[in-house]
Amino acid sequence: MKRVLIVDDSISVARQLEKILTASGEFDVVGHAKNGMEAIRMSQTESPEIICMDMNMPVMDGLTALRTLVASGKGYKVVMVTSLGGVGEKYQEALKLGALDVISKPFEEQSVLKTLRTL
Fold first, then answer.
1. Are 9 and 58 in contact (CB under 8 A)?
2. What is the pTM of this model?
3. Domains located in the chain, CATH noted
4. Tens-digit pLDDT profile for residues 84-96
5. What stretch of H or E contains 26?
6. Complete edge-to-edge strand list for the sheet that includes strand 27-33
7. H-only helix segments in the chain
8. Suppose 94 and one of 89, 99, 101, 118 were both cysteines; which one would form an S-S bond, judging by CB atoms 3.0 to 4.6 Å apart?
């Protein structure tokens, strides 16, 4: 099972994503961070293979945290999470910074699983 850290300031969104991942039986959700700062801290203690991270959060946004996680050299596989309206420029920026993909809210279960299975 692949270890996944979910990073989203919305508890309901994080729970929805966790439910999809755990129901598949292929992923072990090792934690839930509410912002980029917590994500960086938890990535060091929980050793996730995959980090699903919202782009827009308080304290530290997902793109800022992505830069730090990629610079750490630990090989985290980061997938950004965004609402359908928020893709555009930030999508391209996330990929340039090292995100492997972007998944959209509201989640489509099969699309989420397909994306994460390829990592």
1. yes
2. 0.93
3. 2-117 (3.40.50.2300)
4. 655 567 778 888 9
5. none
6. 27-33, 2-7, 50-54, 77-83, 101-105
7. 11-24, 36-46, 62-71, 88-97, 109-117
8. 99
